[in-house]
Amino acid sequence: MRILVSTPWFEPATLAGGPVRSIANMIRELAGMFDFYIFCDSKDVDGRQLVVSETDRWLEYSKDSHVFYSCKKTIKKFKVSIRNLAPDCIYIVGVFSLRFTLWPLLFCSGKRVILSPRGMLHPPALEQKWFKKKIYLAVLKPILKWRRVAFHATDAAEAEYIRSYAGVKSKVFVVPNFPGMLELMPAHKESGKLKLITVALIGPMKNHHLVLKALRQCKEEIEYIICGPVYVREYWQNCEELISQLPPNIKVNYVGSVPNEQVRYLLRDAHVFICPSKSENYGHAIVEALSAGKPVIISHNTPWHLLKEQRSGLNSDLNEASLANAISFFAAMDNTVYSDWVNGAGDYVKRHVNMDSIRKGYNNMFSSDI
Question: Are strands 65-70 and 58-62 parallel, antiparallel or unpaired?
Answer without folding.
Answer: antiparallel
